[in-house]
From TrEMBL, chain A:
Source species: Mesorhizobium tamadayense
Keyword Transport on entry: yes
InterPro entries (UniProt xref): ABC_transp_permease, BCAA_transport_permease
Protein name: Branched-chain amino acid ABC transporter permease
GO biological process: amino acid transport
Highest taxon listed in the record's lineage: Bacteria
Family membership: Belongs to the binding-protein-dependent transport system permease family. LivHM subfamily.
CDD domains found in the cross-reference section: TM_PBP1_LivH_like (cd06582)
Bilayer topology: Multi-pass membrane protein
Chain segments annotated as transmembrane: 15-35, 42-62, 68-89, 101-122, 149-166, 195-220, 232-256, 263-284
Any Pfam family hit: BPD_transp_2
TrEMBL record, chain B:
Main location: membrane
GO cellular component, one term: plasma membrane
Source organism of the structure: Mesorhizobium tamadayense
Name of a matching Pfam family: BPD_transp_2
Transmembrane segments: 7-23, 29-50, 57-78, 98-119, 126-143, 168-187, 217-239, 251-281, 293-311
PANTHER family: HIGH-AFFINITY BRANCHED-CHAIN AMINO ACID TRANSPORT PROTEIN BRAE, HIGH-AFFINITY BRANCHED-CHAIN AMINO ACID TRANSPORT SYSTEM PERMEASE
The protein's name: Branched-chain amino acid ABC transporter permease
Subcellular location: Cell membrane
Source organism, top-level taxon: Bacteria
Entry keyword annotation includes Transmembrane: yes
Amino acid sequence: MFNLPPPDILFQLSLNGALGGAMYGVAAVGLSLIFGTMRLIFLAQGAMIILAAYFVRALFYGLGIDPFLSLLIVVPVGLGVGWLIYQGLFRKAAAEEDRNVSLLIAVGLMFLVQNLMTVVWGGNTAGVVTSYTASGIELFGVRTSFTRSMGFLIALAGTGLVMLFLRKTIVGKAVRAASEDMDSAMLMGISPHRVNAIAFAIGIALAGAAGVAVATTFPFNPFAGFIFSLKALVALALGGIGNVTGALAGGILLGLIEAYVQYFISGGWTNAIAYGVFLLVLMFKPEGLFSRPYKKA
Amino acid sequence: MSRALQWIAIVVVAALALLPFLPGAVDAYYFSFLFFVFLYAVMAQSWNLVAGYGGQISLGSHAFFGLGAYTTAILWSGNYLWGSLYDAYPGIYYFDPVTMLLGGLVAALAAVLIGLPLLSKLHGDYFALGTLGFGEIVKVLFVNGGDFTGGAFGIVAPASSFDTLRPHYWVGLGLMVGTALAIRALMRSRYGLALIAVRDDEMAASANGIDILKVKVAAFAGSAFIAGVAGSLYTYYIFHVGPDSVFHLDWMLLPLMMTVVGGTGTLLGPILGALVMYAVFDLARIVVPDYHPVISGLTIILAMLFLPKGLTRLGVMRRLKSA
Amino acid sequence: MANRLLEVSDLEVAYGDVGALWGVSLHVDPGTIVAIVGANGAGKTTLLRTVSGLLKPKAGDIRLAGDSLVGKAPQEIARMGIAHVPEGRGLFRQMTVLENLELGAFQPKARSRTRELLDKAYTLFPRLKERAHQKAGSLSGGEQQMLAIARATMSEPSLLILDEPSLGLSPLVVQQMFALIQTLHRQGVTILLVEQNIHQALKVAGYAFVLQTGSLAMHGTGAELLADPEIQKAYMGVLE
């Protein structure tokens, strides 16, 4: 059907795919947390990522703050914004357990953020160009983009920190417990609002980190976020909904699929094939590709 | 529905039907406004059938809308059906009910094909995600469809016969009223009871001998049929059907929003929601053109924060219903 | 009634078609085991879920040591001293045994003493110590029920609520379960127990209430009810 390319090209392809996919992964980790406790598909996640990218750009061109250094500002701000978004917008709907309402608030927020960005920064494609934007580094004998590699590192570090929080702290354990069974968690004295707010805070902080990665690697526009949300959803499903490391792995896998489809078939089919894989996984392995088969007694 | 509400509905529909005879009405702004309210109300009913009454949140309405729109555009531009009729009476023979029906059927068929595997395997959010993925796949298929679908540009229909919006208006009104009446009849039938039973408690419904999958797929297909017919009507209005226009997510998100704002699982909710939300959007577009999507986003959030149960469950409506 | 730990008065709950309650009143005194027995769908689980705040009552009052629980969220009620082991155990199956126990001591007053409480729980349930790092879902049914009870005791509750602890367990494990309930009772834990295994429940309970289709049919000491011919006819016949 097609000729296999030489190994170095194949490797280059895989590396680029994996590095790019890590960005979907980090968005998916945020979605996974929010979905876990609230059972909400937070469709505005992509818009929040682009908002963070614009913020990073403003910090760079306005105050001369290096995009990677701005992580120190963007992540804490993201935590605070996430907390506020939950308390202001979702708390009431979560209390009434009306999932349609939460979903629609997320959609409304997406519209609002997208269009606020258009009003403030215009609808054109923007980007961040630094002295190192075009520079490359050698990784495993293959040249690749420095910023993409940094994005990958940010994704790894972000997911790692979240994992540590979830596994090692009692509050993190409470978040996991609430994701598994909210009723039982409440019987332990865990407040749903508290874990929901924490999930949102971390989710938006991760969107901030992803925003830094996006700003430094891709040109973006206010409406690019929705596709990002969809890709993050695919990554989430591939990794298994509610599985944090799986979400990152799912993102990387999606990046690989996209890179291969683009090379071997055509760029026009990447989305269809990515969503096709998504549907198949949802139907035949809804617990995700990376979870060990777990017998439900 | 109470007797009072029935009379109000009949009077309103009659007034709307007679409106095009009012001098100047056809050229007035509110005329096309009403056409779009009808169109969105039909789409909202479609979503309400599967999600409100059926309890299955579908995020794929735009795919069925687009399928209906493309079916119509392909049949129409290719003269596949009674092409001679178009040629012979271009001014008279404009809306083709058979084409519209086929638009709906193609969408319904797609819904059955995708619904059988999805609904037998996926529940709740997984089903919602699956339909979202399905919508994106259909869109890519049409972008890559070559000459048959016109690729990324789409298909332009023969526009020669267009001279007035009146037929669109009446067809739209007819569809809105017809859909509402059909759903009302449906929900009073055995099938409607089964649908509600499945929504409220699948286990109990199944224990009572209801074939859950059949009921769900039927609701999904019915919803798709309505969306397909609405897409067909849109083709007759817009002439140019392209993947980015008819498969736009707005065709899913806006009807969903309108239904929830109006009141999910109610007959009048989708219509009321379509009227109010489209009015807000359109007003914002006219008054603050630069900010209108911001206002739309804000409206949704505010509506959900303060009116989470929808307009039809407000006190005024309740009193009318019980009157 | 100052000495009543739990006081339920004229409780009415609407809950779907099954399990509604119509004007139920009962009470639990400190240091006792109280059983609620009755057939399937009599409203036993509904009653417990209302006490712990998972369901909202339509009317009536529930007081814990004099403080009303009505309108309070489940997590607040848990912090006030009620530990509820729900039907089906409500374990976090994907988390380890140790994590489940730690979450049992999530509330502030217990959290600072997690170590000490953990040691205490392990003394009572040595099996759980061996399995500390296994996932809760991988335990056997009996071990899962032990874990659920151990987790509930981690908060040192003033009232321990057990919903069908013997459900799905083998007869031998059921024996162990009831022995354990008596051990906890001797240690001073107040227990409200719902059981379909009426014979066993009445044997361990100091006092019992019989629920029938949402209302109170009878109440008395465990021994009285065990000897009651009507109870024997209605409930025990099927068990022997």
